[in-house]
Amino acid sequence: MKKIIILGFFLATTIISYSQSLGYRDLGVLFSQNDENGSARFTSMSGAFGALGGDASSMSINPAGIAVLKNSVFTGTFNSRNTDITSNYYGSLLTTQNNFFNLSHAGGVLVFDNVYKSEWSKFAIGFNYRITKDFTDSFISQGNSGVATFRDFPLDSNIPTIDYNLSDEQQFSNSYNGEISEFNIAFSSVHQKKLYVGIGLNFFELIYGQQTLLTEYNSDINGNRLDVDLYQENITAGNGFSANLGFIYKAHPNFRFGMAYQTPTWYSEILQDTNFNQDSDIDIGETTFYQENQQYTEYNDWQYISYSLKTPSKLTASAAFIFGKKGLISIDYINQGYQNIKLYNGAFNGENQFFQNELRNTHSYNIGTEWRLNRLSVRGGYKFEQSPDKLALNSDNLKGYSLGAGYNFGGFKLDLSYSDNNKTSPYNFYPNFNLNPANLNIDNRTVTASVTLNL
């Protein structure tokens, strides 16, 4: 295994070929995305609340919406997510099933009517916590690319050394954990009972981890075997801040429209502990080679990295059609410029060029509806979220639907929702070899339950 010894001790140039954990390009996009968690009413209508308001969760989209509420409320939400990830690697299919349970949202709004004669008749203050992005997932891929990348054994004393150039199989296991959690503070008021305006401050906590294990089984023409395990781990943490502002205008008792802008989120310092280095050629993680009864293990010191990140801003345009007390239809259009992602405080020229040249403005929309039958409400929704990659397949766009119902008991409300969304995504665990990525089909099914207290 002369090549690997050189890689480990003489800083050769091919080591980054084995960095199968997500690189900074992928992390920049991942940390910019949003699961749109919220109350069960919010999720059952696919988050289409930009012009609708009237829910504590709406402040994360348009803070003007909290003043739509007629009275003070508090909402707590749990969800249960089931995710199936099917990997297709060189024709070999393997499905991994994951189940998770979270306190996904909690929020409250205090509504105050103005006791003085004024054109500003009401104002509201809102506090909201939610899981903005849930990273926790895992998948396994296996198959045979026909290419052996680890072809030498470090302790081989044969002259010449054995060339393990026959590929028997590759296996790749990948596990994510962590989340981006968000705390919102919002202020809203109503002018002449028609114009709702609001501003919000958003504080983010990022915790992300990834553990990968690549196993390669190779042999030679005489039946000698070489098995290789390559383990990599990444632990990342940081804090971010953004602000949003917006308005809702009630043009007619049956129609209102709104607009909201969220600034980029600035993560001033992201700390990363990793056993490999993505930007230089010095580490390949922890590598174990097995040949007959011999074992060779190479452990590398962890790298402690600090950098900054700016995620893209977001613009949301919305409209809502209100049919008295019978029901409503709400539509949100979201534009987000992923090409504006930027990494700072490091050698990120290549990554920033990638963001500018390979990513795009995304056009996404959410549609929701609600119909009331006395105290019972039934709901539905549809969402479409465009992939930020210019070269993405149509199946890489996220598409999903949602259903739900709620019952008003007077002093409190109970809401339930079910949502299902799916997309495809490639994962390349041999990034610098001319090999196909594993194609992943990701299907998320989430059941959400909320209790809302009328204060």
State the CATH architecture: Beta Barrel
Task: Give the overall shape, derived from the CA principal axes.
Answer: elongated
Mean pLDDT: 90
Rg calculated over all Cα atoms: 26 Å
How far from one another are the termini?
Answer: 70 Å
Widest sheet: strand ordering: 1-2-3-5-6-7-8-13-14-16-17-18-19-20
Helical segment count: 4
- Find the structural class using helix and strand composition: mainly beta
Along the chain, the helix and strand elements come as HHHEEEEEEEEEEEEEEEHEEEEE
Query: Uncertain segments of ≥5 residues (pLDDT<50)?
Result: 1-17, 279-284
Just give the CATH class: Mainly Beta
How is the biggest beta sheet arranged? 14 strands, antiparallel, barrel
Extended strand count: 20
Number of domains: 1
CATH homology group: Outer membrane protein transport protein (OMPP1/FadL/TodX)
CATH topology type: Porin
Helix content: under 10%
Task: Indicate the proportion of strand residues.
Answer: over 45%
